[in-house]
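Audit log entry. Action: structure prediction of a protein-small molecule complex. Ligand: fe (ii) ion. The ligand was supplied as SMILES and no pocket hint was given, so placement is left entirely to the predictor. Protonation state taken as written. Sequence taken verbatim from the request; no trimming, no tag removal. Recorded inputs:
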Amino acid sequence: MDLFDSTATLTPIPVEGGELSFLAQLALPIANDEVLARLITETAWRSEVITLWGKQYPQPRLTAWHGEKAYSYSGLTLEPLPFTALQLDILAAVQAATGRRFNSVLLNYYRDGRDSMGMHSDNEPELGSEPAIASVTFGATRTFILQNKLNKRRLQLALNDGSLLLMAGSLQTNWSHGINKSAKVLGPRVNLTFRLIL
Ligand SMILES: O=C(O)CCC(=O)C(=O)O
Ligand SMILES: [Fe+2]
């Protein structure tokens, strides 16, 4: 086996002030396209309105929150729905690949290139000080942008169908991340970020 084959094991991506690692294809019992189709149809997608600096904005994507604990961000408190059977299959694969435990998942549905996520850090208190966050993508490849808060250096990662990105250590303290809109007409993408809520 090729030791540097990122389809087999999580491969570290060296970054200053944080831990980042990537696996091009998570080992799953179900094909990626079937997972995507089921996530789109089986999820109770919500269109949330968020409050930033006292003003209200609709989120430019659909979301759902599942797992064991409630989660609050951007003036929003999400009450959890129980994990679905499909989410538990993905969770098991993510825990096996990362060696870490997670108890909740945020699902984001980018319907096409017009949907996006603004630059942010996942640094809410209930995540603890150095949270591990495992991000799994199905569907269209979108560019994940990371920006170092201190030196402003930018990194771009193409998150492809079936991939796993693990963010850990002090990454959320020192970097922000987001997904820009794309002028290309892209197909749907569903991203799941597994988290351990304390
Ligand atoms: O869709 C993505 O790849 C990013 C998701 C994300 O940053 C989040 O859910 O906090
Ligand atoms: Fe995030």
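Audit: result stored. The mean pLDDT is 93. Residues 106, 108, 117, 122, 135, 144, 159, 177, 179, 191, 193 surround 2-oxoglutaric acid (ligand 1) (CB under 6 Å).
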